Amino acid sequence: MLRRGDTLAAVSLSWGGPATFPHRYQAGKRQLEEVFGVRVVEMAHTLSSAEYLQANPQARAEDLMQAFDDPAINGIVSTIGGDDSIRLIPYIDHDIIRRNPKVFMGYSDTTVSHLMCLKAGLGTFYGPSIMAGFGENGGIFPYMRDAVWRMLFSAGSVGELLPNNEGWTVELLDWGDPGLQGQKRTITPCTGWRFLQGQGVHSGHLVGGCIEVLDWLRGTPAWPDEALWDGAVLFLETSEEAPSPQSVKRILRAFNATGVLMKINALLFGRPGGQIAPSQFPDYDQVLREMIHHEINRPDLPIITAMDFGHTDPMLVLPYGCRCVIDCDRHTITIPENAVT
Which of 126, 222, 273, 300 is surrounded by the most beta carbons within 10 Å? Predict the structure, then answer.
């Protein structure tokens, strides 16, 4: 469990965002420290140029391993996503993670590191990064702030996950213009989560991430062992590149070919990332129904969509490995245990 006064390490596991947009990184660092009362420190290569980090995946992995191994560091937060964390896989030491369990959080391409932590037996947190989330224009969203407090700073059971009613945004404000950092983004009204199918109560442990990154990982050492999919609640979200509904369907077909979709107990799907209009959300719902209900003949499998995690702001925090209970009749999603110890 994190506490005020704890030290968090900022790690750049993929793209060198902090060096590219230093004012954005500093804004995220400042807002994280001020709101949660923690101290954020950089690892040796956190602020290195994007060119250096792209050329040196081993250096990025060494930063992560050092952050886990350092007893003075209480938690680790990814600075930003990207598209090549997969190159860290050969350099991850599972024994270091196993011996030094601590809070680790990020999303998007950080899915790779989350799954490597799962291989080591550590449950981590799919949630905001320093630059995207904590670096929000005009201050951290209350919905996200409350989710972080609840998941990382409380030893009590998490309880019911509630939809965001603040409104959401994927508006793009140029990170290259420091003058826009204080300008709040345009908010779109929320329409709530959608329970597409399923009856009764279903439960399982949370596993998932960014759907495109998971697709890249099939067949690699980061792909979860077969037993981990048994009875899981699979959470998926799409990136800011906005893959089409048909692309999502093809990826799900590939997952099904590995046997994953026949093993899980429920599917949670985040609000589509990128510049996708709300009028297009039903297109994603339709392909999920077609895939799950008709192609694999699982009309019983709960599917909940338009959820507040991943490439949407504000976002929930989802704890890998924690038990999640879905009541399809009452339209509730609950985590009946603590996410940290």
Answer: 126
> What contacts 312, CB < 8 A, 6 or more positions away?
168, 169, 170, 237, 270, 271, 273
Other C-beta atoms closer than 10 Å to the C-beta of 325 total 17
Q: Whole-model pTM?
A: 0.98
Which overall architecture, per CATH, does domain 178-335 show?
3-Layer(bba) Sandwich (3.50)
State the helix-helix crossing angle for 245-257 and 281-289, rounded to 10 degrees: 30
Query: In which order are the strands placed within the sheet that holds 39-42?
Result: 39-42, 7-11, 75-78, 103-106, 125-126, 318-319
Q: Is there a contact between 252 and 222 (Cβ–Cβ < 8 Å)?
A: no
In 85-139, at which residue ranges do the beta strands (DSSP E only) sit? 103-106, 125-126
Q: How do residues 103-139 score in pLDDT, each as one tens digit?
A: 999 999 999 999 999 999 999 999 999 999 999 999 9
Dihedral sign, Cα of residue 146, residue 147, residue 153, residue 158? positive
**CA neighbor of 311 nearest in space, from 153, 107, 9, 8:** 107
CA distance 192 to 3: 32
Residue 76 near residue 2, CB atoms below 8 Å: no
Residue pair 39/5 in contact by the 8 Å Cβ criterion? yes
Burial of 273 (0-12, 13-18, 19+ CB in 10 A): buried
In the Cβ-directed half-sphere of 173, how many Cα atoms lie within 13 Å?
19
Q: Which CATH superfamily, name and number, covers 7-156? A: Murein tetrapeptidase LD-carboxypeptidase, N-terminal domain (3.40.50.10740)
pLDDT digits (tens, 9 = 90+) for 297-318: 999 999 999 999 999 999 999 9
Residues 315 and 333: their CA atoms lie apart, in Å, by 15
Beta bridge partners of 42: 10
